[in-house]
Amino acid sequence: MSPTSKQDPPVKRRCHRCHGSGRTPCQICRGTGQVVRGVDLRGKQILDRCVGCFGVKTTRCPTCGGEGFV
Ligand SMILES: [Zn+2]
Ligand SMILES: [Zn+2]
User: Fold this and answer.
1) Distance 14 CA to ligand 2 centre (A)
2) Whole-angstrom distance, CA of residue 65 vs CA of residue 21
C-alpha cells in the first residue's frame, strides 16, 4: 500500500487528434505539400511548395505538441 496521496500521477492519454502519431496533415495545403499560387497565362495552375509544412505534408500536432499523448 502506498501512503495516502491526494493526487494520482497524471495519466497520459493518446492524443485524439493525431491518434498518437504526433503529426497531423498540414492544414494549409491539406496534406498535399503544395499550394496553388495562381494560374499562368494559359490557365495552368502554378504550384508552390507549402510554407506551412515545407512540402513535408504533415505538421506537428497542435493538440499534443508532437508527443502523441496529452
Ligand atoms: Zn502544407
Ligand atoms: Zn496529437
Assistant:
1) 8
2) 11
